[in-house]
Amino acid sequence: MTQPQRPDLTKDVAPASASPGLSGSARSVLASDAEREAMVERLREATAEGRLTLEELAERSEAAYLARTREELASVGEDLPHVTAPATAGSGQRSFRALFGDLVHHSPALDHGIEATAVLGDLTLDLCSSPAPPTGELTIEAKALVGDVHLLLPEGVRVEMNCSKVFGDLRDLTRAHSGPESVTPLIRVTGSAVFGDIIVAHPSSDRRSYWQKWLDERRGRA
Questions:
Q1: Residue 151: partners with Cβ closer than 8 Å, 6 or more residues away
Q2: Is the dihedral angle over the CA atoms 133, 134, 136, 139 positive or is it negative?
Q3: Which residue has the higher pLDDT, 83 or 38?
Q4: Domain DUF1707 spans what residues (predicted)?
């Protein structure tokens, strides 16, 4: 699946005619909360068609929340078509198991949630480039039995952990999101840690800063 190109940070700000539907005066008009919410809904619709990854949904929702003007807000979704078709149902929950050894998996599908089990081994799931679930929410059932489950999530998601532990540990190392809960992708982690650990974290780099940098540079050239 070909993902949409992110904006070129070195490109000059386009003239008014480059943003369909925005007149010269509208480009400098401050965006309203309702307009930001409409853009986030558009992002969710595009996500339901598989156009955005989980990370991109989080990034663009953040950018919509940060946008000050209608021009900046329109730029967040300028490469996305208006979506009218509903999402196609997936095949069901995906299961990943590390049994008596270690397993690392990148970009699994998230349509109907994930079951992650580690028994006498370590399981690492990197979800940063996974296609975002159509609803913007994901449930992960994690079981760490004398082993560890590591979940790598993109910046900008909100995490709820509701797991039990018996001589194990539960660690949420993600950084707090800065957007409102209503527009922030939600990851629910359930399950249990028995003589093992369930760890949720971000990758080492802060990739969400890309959109903040892009907006700052556009404002600097205005």
A1: 116, 125, 127, 140, 142, 187, 189, 198, 199, 200, 201
A2: negative
A3: 38
A4: 30-81
